[in-house]
Amino acid sequence: MPSVTHDDAPLLADLMPWSVAPPRLGRGWPTGPDPASLKARWDALLKAEGPDREALFEPTRSRTLRSAVGQLPGQSGGTEKLARATGPCPEPVRVLHAPFDEHWLIPDHRLIDTARPELWRVADDHQVFVAETSGGPGPILIATSLLPLLRPGRIRPLFRRPDGAEPNLAPGLLAHLSERLGRPVEPADFLAWTLTAVRPDLTVPLTDDPELWSQGTESGHRLLWLMRRDGDRPKLPGGRRPYVRAPLPTRPLGLHYDRDEETLHLDEGRISPVPPEAWDFEVGGVRVLEEWFTTRTTDPEPGTLAAIRPTTWPQTWTSELLELITILALIAEVTQQQDELTVTGRITATELRKAGVFPVPEQARKPASVLDHHEEGPEGQLGLI
User: Angle at the Cα of 69 (from 65 to 71), degrees rounded to 5?
Assistant: First the structure.
């Protein structure tokens, strides 16, 4: 973590004032690492009738087969009650299920206890969601282009409106930083600095030193690229890239890391080289590679929709695992460099108050009105906001 020597760093909650609690699914089966399985689960649900459909659905106080809810913004899920629903499965969308673990989700409001429609309204190619982790070793914040399901921390979109409009930053903050640094500061630059400098107590020390700012934002932009995975695929240097050295079994059950040989064993399958930094990478005290593997290999309860899953290990999972190893190793490299960063030339919370940036207007803590088209409400009616 960056070294700091003061207690007047501004809070992330004031710098990025609009935040939303993460979505809460209420049931596990609408999400998974394999989109074909999600469609098969949907078909199995709709083929079942009466009490069988009810049991498969796994009702909660928030959602039953008779819940009347509107359509998720930007999605095509139906709005008739699931007790009499027909038709194909809505096309699954990519989501961030756990730190650095991308899954798929059936984007149907009837399946999700608390969907947070305000997040769906601003989710597009320009958006970056900043998710707080649960503390402990590893990153304090994770940035993603996907809708994050991470719990329990808050989610802060970088933009309050679609198409990258109206940054979710304290009004006047970018102008003040630009003046103090003597250069333009864009929303992505501020986010890059935040990923570099944020502390465990979710304060963000700011600097007026242009050279230090450049150093921190350069590091943060690389983190953004690695976390978002929305550009060219990152690669480790030649000779350090992980490859499958022995074919993975059709259904691996065990995972073991040989630190001396830098080899990851999936039963008799072998991947190497796997840098120790990738294997040791944790978020909130949980080893990312182990959790990624466990999610895909733990047997669900028989007879549930979650039990509909691939019977053999898909090749796509191997490709995703190789990419994940690469990303974790590269992020560990960046964070090691960030640990050496010492913030000087401070812009304090007191200074931001004197400049009129703080206190943040209450309106900035609420979602913007972004409805530019009709949203279908329950039973096909038009939703009004």
Answer: 115
- Read off the tokens for 178: 């630009």
Cis, bond preceding 300 (omega within 30 deg of 0): no
Amino acid identity, residue 55? A
187-197 helix and 173-181 helix, angle to the nearest 10 degrees: 80
Q: What is the DSSP letter of 371?
A: -
How high is the mean pLDDT in each 10-residue block of the chain (385 residues)? 64 98 97 98 97 98 96 92 94 97 97 97 97 89 96 95 97 98 98 96 96 96 93 88 97 97 98 98 95 96 97 97 98 89 90 98 92 61 48
What does residue 41 show for φ and ψ, rounded to 5 degrees?
-65, -40
CA dihedral (113, 119, 124, 126) in degrees, to 10, reads -150
Q: Are 330 and 277 in contact (CB under 8 A)?
A: no
- Among candidates 116, 110, 102, 93, which has minimal Cα distance to 22? 116
What does the alpha-carbon distance between residue 136 and residue 121 come to, in Å, rounded to a whole number? Answer: 32
Instruction: Give how far the C-alpha of residue 204 lies from the chain's centroid of Cα atoms, to the nearest Å.
Output: 20
* Domain residue spans of the chain: 1-385
Q: pTM for this structure?
A: 0.94
What is the Cα–Cα distance from 31 to 29, expressed in whole angstroms? 5
| First-to-final CA distance of the chain | 43
Structural tokens at position 303: 């007879």
CB 194 within 8 A of CB 141: yes
Q: What is the DSSP letter of 36?
A: H
Residue found under tokens 């009490």: 51
Query: Of 343, 327, 329, 345, which Cα lies nearest the Cα of 216?
Result: 343
Give the max Cα distance, the chain.
67
Say how far apart CA 258 and CA 279 lie, in whole Å. Answer: 10
- 141-144 vs 31-32, strand pairing mode: unpaired
